[in-house]
Write a structure and sequence with these properties.
The protein has three helices and no strands. It is an all-alpha fold and 69 residues long. The protein has one domain (13-68). The protein is elongated and about 40 Å long. GO terms for molecular function: transmembrane transporter activity. One of its GO terms (cellular component) is basolateral plasma membrane. Residues 1-69 form the Major facilitator superfamily (MFS) profile domain.
């Protein structure tokens, strides 16, 4: 999910800013990790850790690489 949604992080950072993209990604990733700790079944764990955390890391990945460059 992280590498599939990395172009989305690039679009967000181009339209808003790199800082907003990284903060939004960190918020999504931390929400996914926190909700994953309360998972009661495997489907819920896939949704929280896989989708939410992966999307959050995707929003952080592209802007972070651009800022370092």
């Amino acid at each position: 999910v992280t590498m599939l949604c990395a172009p989305l992080g690039s679009v967000v950072s181009n339209h808003l800013s790199c800082q907003v993209g990284i903060m939004l990604g960190g918020l999504l990733a931390s929400t996914g990790l926190i909700l994953g700790s309360f998972a009661t079944n495997l489907k819920h764990l896939y949704l929280t850790l896989g989708v939410l955390t992966g999307l959050g890391f995707a929003l952080c990945y592209s802007p972070a690489i651009a800022m370092v460059g």
